[in-house]
Amino acid sequence: MNSPRFLLDTHVFLWAIRDDERLSSNHRTIIAGGEGIAISVVSIWEIAIKRSSGKLVADGDMVQLLNERAIPILAINEHHASRVEHLANHHRDPFDRLLIAQAQVEKLAILTADPMFARYDVALA
């Protein structure tokens, strides 16, 4: 398997597994290719928190779903965590801020529909 080049934002992953019409054709193409995509453990954490609070309904075990689809999971390390300190406060969502930091450190493009991401020095796809 090739190294990841793209990091899926949480909503993009959820849209992909639901075949949601909001998923852009560009994102569909990248995800369908399968190679070069990854999801952060941050997204698994975000989904778990939102499911447990009743803010999100999503069926199934997310880790099992990722494993079945052979989507690599990017762990959080100390470089990712410390990079958050250097991000401007354009975006207040802690999950998204950590995804941006991971993408910067790992030199990944983020697949997102969130316009706030464009305010950061991060590649978008």
Please tell me about this protein's structure.
The chain is α/β, with parallel strands linked by helices and 125 residues long. The chain has a single domain (6-119), classed as Rossmann fold (3-Layer(aba) Sandwich). It contains six helices and four strands, in the order βααβααβααβ. The chain has a four-stranded parallel sheet with strand order 3-2-1-4, with helices on both faces. The mean pLDDT is 92.
Key terms:
125 residues, alpha/beta, Rossmann fold, 4-stranded parallel beta sheet, 45% helix, globular
The number of distinct β-strands equals: 4
Order of helices and strands: EHHEHHEHHE
Write down the overall geometry: globular
Which regions are unreliable across 5 or more consecutive residues at pLDDT < 50?
Answer: none
Largest sheet: 4 strands, parallel
Question: What is the CA-CA span between the terminal residues?
Answer: 20 Å
CATH T-level topology: Rossmann fold
| Portion in strands | 5-15%
Number of self-contained structural domains: 1
Cα radius of gyration in angstroms: 14 Å
The average pLDDT value, as a whole number, equals 92
What is the CATH top level name?
Answer: Alpha Beta
> If strands are numbered along the chain, what order do they take across the biggest sheet?
3-2-1-4
Give a short synopsis of this structure:
The chain has 125 residues and is an alpha/beta fold.
Topology of this protein?
Blueprint: E1 6-8, H1 10-18, H2 25-33, E2 37-40, H3 41-52, H4 62-68, E3 73-74, H5 78-83, H6 94-106, E4 109-111
Parallel strand pairs: 1-2, 1-4, 2-3
